Amino acid sequence: MRDPALRLSDLDGARRHPEQVGRRLVGQVLPDRRAMGEERPLVLRLHDLRHTRATQLLADDVPREVVSRACSAKTTG
Question: How many Cα neighbours within 13 Å face the side chain of 63?
Answer without folding.
Answer: 3
